[in-house]
Amino acid sequence: MYKFITIILATMLLLPALAQNDSRAEIDSLHKIAADYFMQQNFRQSGEYSLKAMEICKKIGDMECTAQYAYAAGISHYIAGNCHEALELFLIALNYYKELKNYGRVFNVYNAIGNTYHYLRDNASRLKWTQEALKLAQETGETHYEAVFNNTCGNATRVLGDTVQALAYFDRALELFRKIDNKPEIIKTLNNMAIAHDSTSVEKVKLFMEAARVSEEITPQSETVLSHLSHIYCNIGDWYAKVNRNDSAALYFDKAIFTVQQSGDKFLMIFMYSHLAEYYAKRGDRQKAKQLAQETIDIINETVGKNHTYDRALKLLSAIYAQEGDYRRAFETLQQWSAVNDTIKARAAREELMNINSRYDFERHRQERINTQQRTIERNRIYMIFAISACLLILAGWLFHSRLMTEKNRGLYRQIKEQSRLAEENREIKALIKTEPTKTNLTKEDMQKATFKQLNDMMKEQMLFANSELKRKEVATKMGLSEKETDECIMNGAGMNFHEFLNDMRLQHARELLISKGKKMTVEAIAKEAGFNTRETFYTLFRKKFGITPGNLMKTAKKLKE
Fold first, then answer.
1. What pTM did the predictor assign?
2. Which of 154, 171, 365, 507 is buried most, with the most CB atoms less than 10 Å from its CB?
3. 294 to each of 82, 262, 342, 402, 428, how far by Cα in Å?
């Protein structure tokens, strides 16, 4: 009965775990789909599937998982340009990570929120959230993040027009990055400080020079470091160009081109070559401008495909050919530019069509998910009703069984009390009619009975049975008999061997103690006082003799006395 109840209760407890396992499997499936869409650069769809995974995590109460998929969905929506949806998801992730006190993740989310507001050109909101992150970084003693958020606050403040405050933020960031010796971040901070100064300020070029010096000190020169260094060289060249020192500008532009080629950063090459092509075209160096414009076009063809930079490079190349008097090539390049424009428009139309298809797929998958959830809820409801019904039936059966056992125990208790009363009356009667037997009128059978009575009385009066180490030899010695005569006496008088007789006396004494002293003594103490060495032996023999366990007899006695 108890095993069956345990099985049913375990089944009820396992039902939520089984449902949770189904949810975990569904989350894993959605994660794989989201990752596939992300790799295909279908960021909208990737975000939608991460959002579905987040909702399931929220239902099963997994805070870490909920925050993780909220952040992932936010990143996908941010890349897809859905910034408002991204912000909502970032805030969900932020609240969960704060509750979990996972500060590393908290700072990552703050960074994402700042980047999103930067994309929206809402620098006031960017500054507000970054200041909140900066305060938390200071409270938690995270030096790296404190420096990062000082840098971000400086950028936001600079765009808002407060150059003095921006430079204060940058100074603090620079101090912290130097403290932890983070040279890549020192370079970025110096670059940001330089940008905050006026375009022709001497302080500006000094900071760019300092950033270049730190970059050149870093070994080995990784792709990232070389990309930053080439960008700094380009900025220095721009400064020299603005102050009409074109020879120095050309020197740094050449350095920038050489360094960016070493880095292998194709996207930076596209930006830099197109930028410098326009610069050299304005200076009248058509050959250099034409070379850089053509290289821009070649790199775009090799890597990213036709885009707006490609469009600008073609227009510039066509203008250079026209200035050189090569009108045929100018016309051909112009035709190519027109075709590219058409291609870009066609791509925009295809993207819009993909968005429509994505919305359709999302609605279809959403409806499928709703149907699946409804089926799961209905199935779990049926399981729960069945489990509750089974438990109620088992509980009713257990209560009925308990009632029967209680009545049985009470009957046994009354029977044992009656036996004790009759035994006591019998002893009193025997005491009244006791006469001194004479040896002349006693038969052998009478002598054996008298000897057994003497032995029985001695055992009770001296409570020899309470000695758990009592031996037959010790009893025989006290009676003046041999061990064999003692065995015969007990067998004739009680119909038992010595050990059975000894245990019977112990059980009778234990029963009386359970009834009379149950409130004051434990079952184990009573067993020990009665002469039993082990609790298990006492329980087995007691239940065999009286049909009830010592514990139940004690409980029944207590209830009847109350």
1. 0.53
2. 154
3. 35, 19, 20, 95, 130
What is the rounded distance in angstroms from the CA atom of residue 252 to the CA atom of residue 192? 19
Residue type, 30: L
- What does DSSP assign to residue 495? S
Structure tokens at 142: 């995270």
Q: What domains does the chain contain, in order, with CATH numbers? A: 445-561 (1.10.10.60)
Tens digit of pLDDT for each residue in 342-392?
555 555 555 555 555 555 555 666 677 677 777 878 888 888 888 888 888
Q: How many DSSP H helices and E strands does the chain contain?
A: 23, 0
Collect all residues with Cβ–Cβ distance below 8 Å to 557 and sequence separation of at least 6.
Answer: 413, 514, 515, 518
Q: Which amino acid is at 232?
A: I
Give the largest CA-CA distance in the chain.
164
d(CA 218, CA 179): 17
The Cα-based distances of 455 to 238, 450, 525, 529 in angstroms read 123, 9, 27, 21
Q: What is the CA radius of gyration of the chain?
A: 48
**Tokens representing residue 197 in the block:** 């100064």
Residue 31 and residue 72: Cα distance in Å, rounded? 10
Q: Per residue in 457-497, pLDDT tens? A: 888 888 888 888 888 888 888 888 888 888 888 888 888 88
Mean pLDDT of 171-178: 92
Q: Please state, as a whole number, how many other Cβ atoms lie within 10 Å of the Cβ of residue 290.
A: 19
- The DSSP line for 296-311 is HHHHHHHTT-S-HHHH
* d(C-alpha 526, C-alpha 382), whole Å: 52
Virtual torsion, Cα 294, 295, 301, 304, nearest 10 deg? -130
Q: What is the DSSP letter of 218?
A: -
Beta-carbon contacts of 371 under 8 Å, excluding residues fewer than 6 positions away, are none
Name which of 44, 36, 37, 41 is nearest 81 in CA terms: 44
pLDDT in tens, 545-555: 888 888 888 88
Is residue 87 a contact partner of residue 115, using CB atoms and an 8 Å limit?
no
